[in-house]
Design goal:
Layout: H1 2-22, H2 25-34, E1 41-42, E2 45-46, H3 49-66, H4 71-99, H5 103-109
Antiparallel strand pairs: 1-2
Helix pairs in contact: 1-3, 2-4, 3-4
Amino acid sequence: MVSSLNAALGQIATIERHIDIVGDKKKYEIVDQAHSLKTNRKKGLPYDEARQALSSHLSRLANLDKSRLTDEEKKVIDVRRSAISAATKLYTARQAEALGVDFEKRKSQL
């Protein structure tokens, strides 16, 4: 469990770095170009290290939720999963903003 927590802390540091990068449109254009292959994108946006880390953290929490926990511990895991899901949505919105992608317009065209 210690190695899993250490991995999570490392991933949180990665997410923090990317939040700074996605806030700078010129810097994020470079990330966008580096993730140009379809396999490196999800929903038209780069599947960068931050999104990978958030996804990994959600998986880790899902695995914890399957283990033998008390009801109170499971509630804490559920709150953490909800927070990570919200963080993922916010980060994706920042990606779209940095790249000038309008998801509302895209949805109306589908």
